[in-house]
Design a protein that fits this description.
The protein is mainly alpha-helical. Helix content is 48%, strand content 11%. It is built from six helices and two strands; from the N terminus they run ααββαααα. It has helices at 14-22, 26-39, 82-95, 100-105, 108-115, 123-139, and strands at residues 62-69, 72-79. Strands 1-2 form a two-stranded antiparallel sheet. Helix 2 (26-39) packs across helix 3 and helix 3 (82-95) runs parallel beside helix 6.
Length: 141
């Protein structure tokens, strides 16, 4: 299986996203930034949109594929919802190209706090975002 390449975790880092979000003027600006990031996420090929790759706990449909290459994790994901595609990019920026130890050590809660988004997400979106993170952490354990 070959995953589609994306810029998250390489060209677009978690640090760059934090800086972008902290420079935003309020929640609506942050929301727009998330949507714009989602547009940079390549669509997952149809053959990877399999039931076993669906993330449970998400209100929208979310697929998460991964492969491990010499101890480094690579992820590809997609959703049928625009805002969720953007939220996926935040997660991929944090975890793409990392080892299992780096994934486990990353302070995802601190990262999300610094983005200033969680308080503005609906409970179902917040739970879906946590479900994606939990699935990645499970893969890295």
């Amino acid at each position: 299986m070959t995953l589609p390449a994306h810029p998250f975790g390489t060209d677009i880092t978690s640090e760059a996203i934090v800086a972008q979000m902290q420079a935003a003027n309020g929640w609506e600006d942050r929301y727009r930034n998330v949507i714009q990031l989602g547009k940079k996420l390549p669509a997952l090929p149809e053959e990877l949109k399999q039931d076993q790759l669906k993330v449970s706990g998400c209100e929208s449909q979310v697929w998460l594929a991964h492969q491990q290459d010499e101890g480094v994790f690579h992820f590809a994901a997609d959703s049928d919802a625009r805002i969720v595609r953007g939220l996926i990019t935040l997660v991929l920026a944090a975890y793409e190209g990392k080892t299992a130890a780096e994934i486990r050590a990353f302070d995802i809660d601190g990262y999300f706090d610094s983005l200033g988004l969680m308080a503005h997400l609906s409970p179902s979106r917040g739970n879906g975002l946590k479900a994606i993170v939990e699935q990645i952490k499970e893969l890295a354990s």
